[in-house]
Task: inverse folding
């Protein structure tokens, strides 16, 4: 007697075994001639520079926070999605209101610009600034 | 020792070993990734207890969500490698007494509880029943949950928003 989770367990075990066997076979048949260049950290062909443990932009964290809220929403929609058809239009309306309330939050964040990625603002040089600087140097001379 | 026991002890082993690594690793990135296996092991134990919905929630929310948040939090910290595990305030005796009392209490609960055991009972799926209750009896709570998530969403965005200069 195999439950659905038993099948999932078999999938998990197969995935692990698949990875192990693939790595073992390639370990057995590949030539092994390591050099200094080959053993360096691969960074898109460039020579790695500095420590990889750098601080990340805070924007990633905000996106992760928003993601978790919608993650919980998806989890709560699981039981609803299994059953709403049996209740006809009423069941559909229940889920629709649920989604609309959360869509309100989505609209709020969109409007407030929380979904915008904060880019560094480059300052293009202005002609007037250059002219002013030049006139200042001329005056000082 | 039957098949289910073997699976249970496998998941229990995964949970305990990875939790031990979470606490003792000196690199908090490794701690974060060990936490993944702890959450996964706990999800497996939920499945064996017959609560499939809780197990899916555990995988979706904890493994898929909270862990990402923790890893991003780790990446925002100053010191990632060679973290001092022992803090300055380390009191062995009170800690030993507290842990001993807790261990004794948990063991007493384990020994004296009359565990229900019904052999051969295949656990039924609970998700459909939860869905029925959410649509009929607890429909107000279902919509209130959406309100709660809305408040959390706006609150999180407001707190984390970068101040405009």
Result:
């Amino acid at each position: 007697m195999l439950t659905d989770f038993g099948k999932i367990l078999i999938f998990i075990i197969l995935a692990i075994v698949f990875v192990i066997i693939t790595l073992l076979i390639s370990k057995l048949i590949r030539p092994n001639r390591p050099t200094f260049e080959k053993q360096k950290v691969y960074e898109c062909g460039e020579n790695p520079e500095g420590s990889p443990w750098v601080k990340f932009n805070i924007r990633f964290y905000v996106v992760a926070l928003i993601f978790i809220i919608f993650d919980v929403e998806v989890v709560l929609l699981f039981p609803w999605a299994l059953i709403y058809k049996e209740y006809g239009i009423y069941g559909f309306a229940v889920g629709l209101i649920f989604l609309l309330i959360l869509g309100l939050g989505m609209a709020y964040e969109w409007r407030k610009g929380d979904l915008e990625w904060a880019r560094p603002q480059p300052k293009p040089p202005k002609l007037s600034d250059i002219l002013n600087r030049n006139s200042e140097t001329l005056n000082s001379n | 020792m039957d098949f289910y026991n073997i699976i249970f002890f496998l998941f229990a082993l995964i949970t305990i070993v990875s939790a031990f690594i979470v606490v003792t690793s000196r690199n908090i990135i490794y701690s974060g990734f060990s936490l993944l296996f702890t959450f996964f092991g706990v999800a497996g134990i939920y499945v064996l207890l017959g609560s499939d919905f809780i197990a899916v929630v555990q995988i979706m929310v904890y493994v898929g969500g909270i862990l990402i948040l923790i890893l991003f939090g780790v990446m925002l910290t100053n010191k990632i490698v060679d973290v001092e595990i022992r803090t300055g305030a380390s009191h062995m005796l009170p800690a030993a007494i507290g842990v001993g009392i807790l261990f004794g209490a948990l063991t007493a609960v384990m020994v004296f509880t009359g565990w229900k055991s019904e052999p051969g009972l295949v656990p039924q799926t609970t998700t459909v029943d939860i869905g029925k209750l959410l649509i009929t009896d607890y429909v107000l709570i279902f919509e209130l949950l959406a309100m709660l998530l809305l408040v959390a969403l706006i609150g999180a965005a407001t707190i984390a928003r970068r101040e405009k200069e």
